[in-house]
Amino acid sequence: MRKNMPSVLVFMATIFICGCAATSSNLFKPAVSSLQARQVEMKQFEIKDELRVLSATAAVLQDMGFTLTEVEKKLGLIVASKERDATVPRQIAMAAFIDILGAAGGSSSNAMQTIDTIQTILVSCVTKRNLEGNKVVVRVSFQRVVFNRMNQVSRLETIKDPKIYEGFFEKLSKSIFLEADKI
Amino acid sequence: MKRIKIKFLAASLLVFLICGCATTTQERILDLSQDQLKLRSIQTRAFDTSDKEKMMRSIMATLQDLDFVITKADYDLGIVTSTKFVDNQVLKMTVITREKGSKQLLVRANAQYGIKAVNSPGPYQNFFDALARSVFLTAQQID
Prior knowledge:
The complex is a heterodimer.
Chain A: H1 5-18, H2 34-41, E1 42-45, H3 50-63, E2 67-72, E3 77-85, H4 89-104, E4 116-129, E5 136-148, E6 153-158, H5 162-181
Chain B: H1 2-19, H2 36-43, E1 44-47, H3 52-65, E2 69-74, E3 79-86, E4 89-100, E5 104-113, E6 116-117, H4 121-135, E7 140-141
Antiparallel strand pairs in B: 1-5, 1-7, 2-3, 3-4, 4-5, 5-6
């Protein structure tokens, strides 16, 4: 036992030194997949007027029940958010099952408190004219924060599913078209 | 006797381990312990352009390429704020653009990851490299 002491001391000293370590240095390096993400998140519209695209975007976001939290027309930015239900029946059933098992086994598990209840969805749209100035590119990204019953953050995620972006751009194309016809 | 000494040493190391990184929590409000000038030069670059709008739009595009989601922007104040989720932690970054004389723009970025400030030069160097590529200009170190 006494022989082990020095190695224990060294081990503890190591932890002590490593405690203050800085975050990794490749924090702001572009990911390998960033080009792919770019294609999913971007769409180009054959239109010159950037403001019209911006207002069509705002209209689409309203259609989807978002409320606008930030707008900067000079830089072409719209940020919007909404809170929605995040309960999944399967997750509730699973939690109930675990709690019942726990109760049967004589322990008090609390899985029901950790099920997801609310999600905050954030969307950020940036418009940009292309170099020739005859087209407008829209780049959009969605984020989701999910809270559980104890009001703790259970998940933070950036939406990557191309279908969601396709759906958004489909609606946006229609909206720009409607705006053009002033319906 | 020797055994007691070692035990004492172990205990005091443990205390150090727990207290090691702590400053009092109120000191964290101003966070003035870091060398201000050094931090400023890590976080700031100068660019030879006076086109603030183009610079700010490039900053936004660069942040988006780095998977950030832009949450705030103000042209007059030159502010762009963005967030990104990394390993279930929030990485937040604010970039401020302002004029330096009539021919240059100063760009300063600062970030926090989870509950820690990002103070090492590496991440900022990566960001400014990406930004420089996007605006076709050289990011110059400031004095």
